[in-house]
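Entry type: protein chain
Record version: 2
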Amino acid sequence: MTGWTGNILRINLSSRSYKKETYDEAFAQKWVGGRGFSMKILWDELKPGTDPLGPDNKLIVSLGPIAGVPAPNTGKTVVAARSPLTGGYADGNLGSHVTSQLRKAGYDIVIFEGIFDKPGYVYIEDDKVTFFSAQEVWGKGTYATLDWLYAKYGRGAGILTIGQGGENKALFSVVRSLEGRAGGRPGIGAVMGSKLLKAIVVKGTKEIPMANPDEYKKLGATDLKKVGALDKESGWSKQGTDGILAWCNEVAALPVRNMRETHHKNAWMLDGERVDAARVATYGCPNCTMRCGITVLDKEGHESELDYENIGMLGSNLDIWDLAQVASLNYLCDEYGLDTISSGSVLGFYADAIDRGAIKGDFRWGDAERAKELMRLISHRDGEIGNLLADGTRKMAQQIGQNSGRYAMHVKGLEISAYNCKYIPGMALAFGVAPIGGHHKESWVISFELKQTSRDSYGREKAQKVIDLQRIRGGLFEFIVSCRFPWVELGWPLENYAIYFNKATGLNWALDDFWKVADRIYALMNGFWLREYPNWDRSMHYPPMCWFDPSNADKEGPIAGKILELAKYEKLLDEYHDIRGYDNRGIPTKRTFQALGLSEEMKQLEKYAALK
């Protein structure tokens, strides 16, 4: 077997022990890597109802066959667990030196079990694992922790860590690495914190196994230069992802005031031009030649790395239009190890609930200073308000009541990303059916929908496009593992990733082979949800209900008076389920499970719920 190491490192924190395990080529080809490996392991090893913050939950770090090998944007690592925020399958990817270092250490997968008796970190160096105390940095933020570990192991070491948010188990805590890299929106940082695991450090010295190493390295180096040239020619990284903000405002898709509004006259103050003008540094993931980590100085003088999602959710969504203040909120998220998207959504929901008299509080739209203090309360679970907000919008709405759940902007418990889809049915569907909750990374169909079709259509072609993009974005890139930006932003052909995969593994796969793997993973992710929620129904595939509420329609602007229509959305959802081979609840049918090679998993699932 080439392309994969074939090795799993299993670490038990309770006993401070570890062992090396292997997997075979059949497993490798069926699940490929990253998200595929993680999903299958969690399915096999977690009992339904496992406490996400208990010792029996598994924290998984997983890679794919091209991860870490020099080629365009292959410096990504997947972290996964059962989510404490949603209760379903959860993962995220982030750029990190862990990617290459872990593969050089000889592993594609690390499984963390149990819980430390006191705060610690794990150091993996080739075949040896050492357990160290983290008491010196427990209670400190991610920047100080990273500096402490860099001083010990050097800046080339692979490091994953958490901040105070993870330590105190704020449910939308993330895992951090490098300058501004973060991943694991549905609370993977809280899972690390529950295990008293402050950090993971990796160094490796071995060769990464490849079928055609010389050819691959030559091709990868050449293609890195080509992608860099494309980026320079297009100018994309001058504004990075924030280049989309002005467009979102223009087409009425910007999150403003808990997504009550879709555009704002002050949007220009946060757009890509302003971010580029304020730039003081630029960072990127390993193996990247189109670096998007545009860094500005925040209100307090810290370097803060910005992208569209955190500007949209911590800026316009909170009615804050001072870029330096938005950068301050973003810096605090990184320091505390909190997800920027969920943080902005939680604060927006809190302000909205106060506005509507559902709860008493002193947070108002545009109050950046109070928002900073609330971030501290969340990350430390300080007091009643800190605990309330640290649980995320779904649980907040359950506690607040007063019908506030209708404007809690989440899907399956995960706060939706920075695209206001009250009149964008295809993207609303993409959020609704996203298998980890409301995340744009699964199927960013909004550009296709607003540029190539009519935004008010609910036809089958939109459902098909959502699936096509899921297979690519939530499938291919999440299991090979690699960043999608060269393809998304620069048009780098998808066929190149099949070439990289084949040169690494010695196989001869076409793109259609990857789509079947993607469909298999999505089916099992949906099965995982059903196993945890046996009363699952199709409402779990709905976007926030306020997008269907006529009273929530814009009063002026390009979509004045327009909202999603529930009856039409239901038909669009039916089309999605039909193409996928799912029943009307959104669960794969027996025939679909069998066609995807999941007969055994289907039999296991039938113990918990009836399948059609």
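Comment: The radius of gyration is 22 Å.
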